[in-house]
Design a protein that fits this description.
The complex is a heterodimer. Chain A is mainly α. Chain A has eleven helices and no strands. Chain A is globular. By secondary structure, chain B is of the alpha+beta class. In chain B, strands 1, 2, 3, 11, 12, 13, 14, 24 and 25 form a nine-stranded mixed beta sheet that branches. A six-stranded antiparallel beta sheet of chain B has the order 7-17-18-19-16-22, covered by helices on one side. Chain B starts with a strand and ends in a 15-residue tail after the last helix. The chains are: A mainly alpha, B alpha+beta. At the A-B interface, α6, α8, α9, α10 and α11 of A face α2, β4, β5, β16 and α9 of B.
Chain lengths: 283, 581
C-alpha cells in the first residue's frame, strides 16, 4: 500500500505504534509478513512481496485474509496482537505471533462456530461463582503436554462453567487488559513496555485479576492455547503465515505417509507443504 | 405421536465396534436388522485430504456435538453435578462407525486374571487383599472361554502384532506381522530388554500389510502418516467398522442402517422389550421401531442412559448399595496413562511420523505377572512408549520449571519438539461402591430428557498404582538415556475430563442378578430379549486398552442373540455371588 493511500491516523497513535514496534523487537526495515504491522509501517519497509523472490511473493501477495471479522475496534485488536507477541515473541528462531498473523487467526476463530460455542453444551443453570471456569483449557493431556504439575491439579467442578462463549470471554479478557493498562500506567495496553505487559499477563495467569463471569486464569489459558494454535495450525486458518511456524518446528505439514522413512535414524529435513498442497495432490 | 414402523428381528442402537459386529453377525445369519446411529453417514471419502490438526485434534471434528446432549459429573455423593460442556473435556464418538473410527488402534487381550480378578486375588493373597468398598468380581467368563472370540475379532480387524513373551495361550498368532519399528520404539525395547524386561511391539489395528478378512473385506497397509488418533483413516488402513463390519452387514441385504436417528427409549411391556423409540434429527419426527430383540450397542454412556431413561432394571443406590443399573461404573481416567517424560539433548527423533498404535510395550507389571504381596494395590498394566505422530500444536512439551510462555517457552519448546519421549503405565482400575451412573436431577438434553450423571472419585488404590507406574516409567526413561526426566504427578482427584474414551461399566456382567445387569452373553437378567453390548459390560477395567475386549464380547453377544432368536430364553442360569462383589 502506498503511503498516500493510507488512512489518516492521529499522530499520537502513530507514535504509540512505532513504540510498540520497537518494544516488540520489530524494527522498521525488518521483514514483516503482513498482519497488524503491515498496515502500520511506512513504505520504507519492504514487504516480502517486493523482494523479487517469486516463490515468497506468490504466497505473500494475499493480504486479503488480514482483515478483522470479529473484533470491530482497532484498539481491541492491537491489545490482542501485543499480548500474543509477548506470549510467542519474534526471536532468533524466527517470527513471532504478529508476523505469523496469529491475531487474525484468533479473530477468525472467534468469528466462527468455535467462538460461539456451537458444539458446547450451553444450557443453564450456570453455577454462580467466579471460580467455576478456572480450569478451562488447562490441558493435562500427558501425551500432548508432558508432565506439568500445574495442569494436574484437580478441579472442583467440570471446568467450563461460564455462560459466556469463547468470543465473549476474549472480549472480556481484552477489556480487562486495557483496564489494567490504563489504571496502572495510564496508557493503552499496546503502548506499554514489554515488562509491563508481561506483568499484566502474569497477573491474569495467576488469577490475580478479577474478571466478570470467568476466572482470569481461564482467559489467560485460552489466549495462550489459541496463540499457539495460530502459530502452528495450517495456514488455511489465517495464521502460521508462509508456514513459518512449521519451519521453526521442522514440521513438514500433512503428507501421504512415511512408510519408507519410519525406521530411519536420521532426522528428516523436509520442505513444508500445506493442506492446500495436499488437497491439490488429490485433485 | 410416534409413527410405528414394520417390525424387524433385531434393532441395534449404535454402529461402532459393538453395534457394528452385532449387526453384521445377525444379518449374516439371515435375520432382518435395523441399525440406528445418531450421527451422520460417513465413509473413507470423508477422510481423504483432511489431515488437519486444528480441525480434528483441537476442535474435535469427529466428536459428539455436545450442544444437544452431554453428561454431568461430580466427585462425591453430596455434590451437585455440573455439565461437562466442551469437547475438550468430553470426547465421545459419533457418526457412522462411532468412536471406533477415530481410535488409535492399540490392541491387547486382557489377561486371565482380569476375568477372574476376585477369585484369583483371594486365591493368591487372601480375602483381606480386597479393600472395603471395592466392587470387583469375576466376569462369569474366563480367558479360555473368551479366547475364540478374541481370535475372531482379531481376524476381522486384521490386527498386526507379535507374541507377548509373557502372554497367555492363543489358538492362533496375530493375523498380520507387527508394524515397523521406529528408532524411538527401538530405543524403548532395547533398553527395557537390557533391564531384564520382556518388551514387544504393540499389536496394532494400523495394518502392517494389506489384508483380506474372513468376511471378504479388504484393508490397506498403514502409511505411518500420523493422522490416526482422532482422525478417520483415508487409506482404509486402520481397522474400524467402516472398512469391516458395516460393509459386511450391508452386503447381506439384511441390514438397514439409519443415520441421524437419536434413540430416546427402549420400549417394553410385561418384562419384554418391544422395540425402540427414536427421533430423526433432520425432521424432528418420532418413530417406533419394533423388534424381537433389542440391542444397545452404543458407548457406555448411552447404554447406561437409555436403561435409566427407559426404567429397565433396578437403578443402583449407593446409600443402600443395592440395585444394578449404573453400578460398577469404571474406566481409565486422568490418573491412568501417567509415567515419565524424557528430554534428549543428543538425539532427535522423527516424531511427526507415526501411527496410532505404533509403539513398544511390556507386560512385566501387568495383571499378576508381579508379586503384589507388599503392594497396596491389585492388578497392573502395560508400560508403553507410543509414537502417534505428533502435530505441531500438540507438541510443546518443555522440562518442568520452564515458563510456559514467552521467549524461554518458545526457545525450549522448539528445541525439544523432536527430542522428547513419554513412557506411561496403562493401569487397570477397580470399581467402587461410590462410583456409579444415574440420571441428573437438573440438566436435560434438547428433548427435555435428563442427562446421564457420572459420580466418580479416585481412591488410594488408584493413587498407589499410579505412583508405582510412574516410578517404573521413570527408571526406564533414565535408562533410555534422557538428559532430563520429568516424572508425572499423581493427581489428587478426578478432574472431570473425559478425554480418553475408555469409560465403561454401569451395565456390568456377572453371574448374580443382585449385582450384575447382564449375563455372560450380555443378555439382561431382567429382560431376556434385550442385550446390552460394549464396554458398559466391564465389571472393572483391565490393565490394557479395551477395544479388543469390546470386540470379543460383541462376538460373544452376537452368538447369544442368534441362539436367543432360535430359542428365546435366558441363556445362562444365575448364581449367587459372594457378598460385596
Amino acid at each position: 500500500m502506498a503511503e498516500t493511500e493510507r488512512p489518516k491516523t492521529p499522530q499520537a497513535k502513530d507514535e504509540s505504534r512505532r513504540k510498540f514496534l520497537k518494544n516488540s523487537g520489530l524494527v522498521a526495515g525488518g521483514l514483516i509478513g503482513g498482519g497488524l504491522l503491515g498496515s502500520l509501517v511506512t513504505s520504507q519497509v519492504k514487504k516480502p512481496a517486493d523482494t523479487g523472490n517469486k516463490d515468497t511473493a506468490a504466497k505473500d501477495d494475499n493480504h486479503d485474509m488480514d482483515a478483522r471479522t470479529f473484533f470491530s475496534r482497532t484498539d481491541d485488536f492491537e491489545t490482542l496482537s501485543a499480548a500474543t507477541e509477548r506470549l510467542y515473541p519474534k526471536d532468533k528462531n524466527g517470527p513471532g505471533a504478529i508476523e505469523l498473523s496469529v491475531p487474525y487467526f484468533i479473530d477468525r476463530q472467534l468469528a466462527g462456530d468455535w467462538g460461539s460455542n456451537a458444539h458446547a453444551y450451553m444450557k443453564g443453570p450456570f453455577p454462580q461463582n467466579q471460580e467455576a471456569a478456572y480450569y478451562e483449557d488447562l490441558d493435562r493431556n500427558q501425551k500432548n503436554q508432558g508432565p506439568n504439575a500445574d495442569t494436574q491439579t484437580a478441579a472442583p467442578t467440570p471446568r467450563y462453567q461460564t455462560r459466556m462463549n469463547r468470543g465473549e470471554i476474549f472480549r472480556e479478557g481484552i477489556k480487562t487488559m486495557q483496564d489494567q493498562a490504563s489504571s496502572k500506567h495510564d496508557k493503552k495496553f499496546a503502548e506499554l513496555e514489554g515488562e509491563q505487559m508481561d506483568a499484566i499477563l502474569t497477573d491474569l495467569e495467576e488469577g490475580k485479576i478479577r474478571m466478570n463471569g470467568i476466572h482470569s486464569t481461564a482467559f489467560f489459558n485460552l489466549l495462550l492455547q489459541t496463540t499457539i494454535e495460530g502459530a502452528y495450525a495450517d495456514p488455511v486458518y489465517g495464521g502460521n503465515r508462509n508456514m513459518a511456524g512449521w519451519k521453526m518446528k521442522e514440521y513438514p505439514g500433512p503428507r501421504m505417509g512415511y512408510l519408507g522413512q519410519i525406521e530411519d535414524e536420521e532426522f528428516a529435513v523436509m520442505k513444508q507443504e500445506s493442506l492446500r498442497d495436499y488437497q491439490d495432490m488429490w485433485g | 405421536m410416534a409413527k410405528k414402523l414394520k417390525k424387524v428381528d433385531v434393532v441395534v442402537v449404535g454402529s461402532g465396534w459393538a453395534g457394528g459386529i452385532v449387526s453384521a453377525e445377525a444379518a449374516k445369519a439371515g435375520y432382518k436388522v435395523v441399525t440406528l446411529e445418531r450421527g451422520k453417514p460417513v465413509d473413507r471419502q470423508d477422510y481423504i485430504g483432511v489431515k488437519d490438526e486444528l480441525r480434528y485434534t483441537d476442535r474435535y471434528e469427529m466428536m459428539q456435538n455436545l450442544a444437544p446432549e452431554t453428561i454431568t459429573s461430580r466427585n462425591n455423593l453430596d455434590e451437585e453435578a455440573l455439565p461437562v460442556r466442551t469437547r475438550k473435556e468430553m470426547m465421545a464418538g459419533t457418526d457412522l462407525g462411532g468412536g471406533s473410527v477415530h481410535w488409535a488402534g492399540a490392541t491387547y487381550r486382557w489377561k486371565p486374571i482380569d476375568f477372574e480378578l476376585r477369585s484369583k486375588t483371594i486365591e493368591r493373597y487372601g480375602e483381606k487383599k480386597i479393600q472395603e468398598g471395592m466392587f470387583i468380581r469375576d466376569w462369569g467368563i474366563t480367558y479360555d472361554e473368551m479366547e475364540p472370540y478374541y481370535d475372531k475379532w482379531e481376524k476381522t480387524a486384521g490386527i498386526s502384532g507379535e507374541p507377548d513373551p509373557l502372554g497367555d495361550k492363543r489358538s492362533n498368532d496375530w493375523p498380520n506381522p507387527p508394524m515397523k519399528e521406529s528408532p524411538a520404539v527401538k530405543l524403548f525395547k532395547d533398553t527395557t530388554k537390557k533391564m531384564g524386561y520382556h518388551p514387544y511391539q504393540v499389536a496394532s489395528a494400523n495394518l502392517s500389510q494389506s489384508y483380506k478378512n474372513p468376511d471378504g473385506e479388504t484393508l490397506a497397509q498403514c502409511m505411518f502418516c500420523s493422522f490416526c488418533t482422532q482422525y478417520g483413516c483415508d487409506f482404509g488402513a486402520k481397522s474400524d467398522p467402516l472398512v469391516t463390519v458395516i460393509p459386511t452387514a450391508l452386503k447381506t441385504g439384511n441390514c438397514e442402517i439409519r443415520t441421524h436417528s437419536y434413540v430416546r427409549r427402549v420400549l417394553h411391556e410385561n418384562g419384554k422389550a418391544t422395540g425402540v423409540m427414536y427421533v430423526d434429527l433432520r425432521t424432528g419426527l418420532e418413530y417406533i421401531q419394533p423388534a424381537d430383540v433389542v440391542v444397545l450397542g452404543a458407548f457406555a454412556f448411552t447404554n447406561n442412559r437409555l436403561l435409566h431413561l427407559s426404567k429397565i432394571g433396578e437403578p443402583y443406590n449407593p446409600e443402600t448399595r443395592k440395585g444394578v443399573i449404573g453400578r460398577n461404573y469404571n474406566g481409565q481416567f486422568g490418573i491412568t496413562f501417567l509415567g515419565a517424560r524424557g528430554f534428549f539433548e543428543k538425539k532427535k527423533f522423527n516424531l511427526f511420523m507415526g501411527a496410532g498404535a505404533l509403539g513398544g510395550t511390556l507386560s512385566d507389571f501387568a495383571g499378576d505377572n508381579f508379586d503384589h504381596t507388599d503392594l497396596d494395590f491389585i492388578n497392573g498394566g502395560g508400560i508403553e512408549l507410543r509414537q502417534y505422530g505428533h502435530g505441531p500444536i500438540a507438541t510443546n512439551a518443555v522440562p518442568k520449571g520452564t515458563k510456559n510462555w514467552g521467549p524461554e517457552f518458545k526457545e525450549k519448546s522448539l528445541h525439544y519438539t523432536n527430542r522428547s519421549l513419554v513412557v506411561w503405565y496403562t493401569m487397570a482400575t477397580m470399581s467402587w461402591w461410590h462410583n456409579y451412573t444415574s440420571l441428573d436431577p437438573t440438566y436435560t438434553d434438547d428433548f427435555g430428557d435428563p442427562l446421564l450423571r457420572i459420580t466418580y472419585k479416585y481412591t488410594d488404590h488408584d493413587r498407589a498404582m499410579a505412583k508405582f507406574g510412574i516410578e517404573k516409567c521413570t527408571e526406564i526413561m533414565k535408562e533410555m538415556g534422557a538428559d532430563i526426566v520429568d516424572p508425572d504427578e499423581v493427581p489428587e482427584e478426578f478432574d472431570h475430563v473425559y478425554d480418553g474414551g475408555h469409560y465403561a461399566g454401569g451395565v456390568s456382567m456377572g453371574e448374580d442378578p443382585e449385582t450384575s445387569a447382564v449375563n455372560n452373553y450380555l443378555q439382561m437378567w431382567d429382560m431376556e430379549n434385550l442385550f446390552v453390548v460394549g464396554g458398559s459390560a466391564f465389571p472393572q477395567f483391565g490393565g490394557h486398552h479395551p477395544t479388543a475386549t469390546i470386540g470379543a464380547l460383541s462376538y460373544r453377544a452376537s452368538e447369544g442373540i442368534i441362539n436367543y432368536l432360535k430359542d428365546p430364553k435366558l441363556l445362562t442360569q444365575p448364581k449367587k455371588a459372594a457378598a460385596n462383589a
